[in-house]
Amino acid sequence: MTQSPTLVRLVADTLGVPVSVAAVPESASLGCAILAAVGAGVYASTAEAVSTMTGARRVDPDPRRAAECDERYRKWRGVYDLLQTWTL
What is the rounded CA–CA span in Å between residue 6 and residue 31? Predict the structure, then answer.
C-alpha cells in the first residue's frame, strides 16, 4: 500500500494525521541489511546503522479533502461495525 501515492494520501486525508512512509518498502530485508552492516563492522552500532540506512517521507493531510473523507469514513465504519456482529 505504501507504494501507491493515492492510497497513502487517502489514509492521511481520511485520518486527518500525517503519515510517514518508509523510503524502502522491503523493511524486513532492510532490517537484515542493517544488522549485517553492524556485524560486518561498517557501523559501530545498530542505532548508527538505522539512522544512516533508513529514511521516510511525510504525507500531510489536505484539510479540504479530509472533510470529504469524513462522511465516507463514517459510512464505511458503520458497515464494518455491522459486519463484526455477523458469525459464520
Answer: 26
H-type helices in the chain, by residue range?
A: 5-15, 27-39, 46-53, 63-83
Using DSSP's 3-state secondary structure scheme, residue 50 falls into: helix
Rounded to 5 degrees, φ, ψ at 29 are -65, -40
How crowded is the C-beta side of 68, counted as CA atoms within 13 Å?
A: 10
Angle at 39 between CA 38 and CA 41, to 5 degrees: 65
Report residue 41: phi and psi, to 5°: 85, 10
Kindly tell me the sign of the dihedral angle through the C-alpha atoms of 7, 12, 13, 14: positive
Of the ranges 21-25, 44-48, 61-65, 70-74, the best mean pLDDT one: 44-48
Q: Name the pTM for this structure.
A: 0.67
Which grid coordinates belong to 48? 548508527
Task: Supply 72's cell numbers.
Answer: 465516507
CA angle, residues 33, 36, 38, in degrees to nearest 5: 110
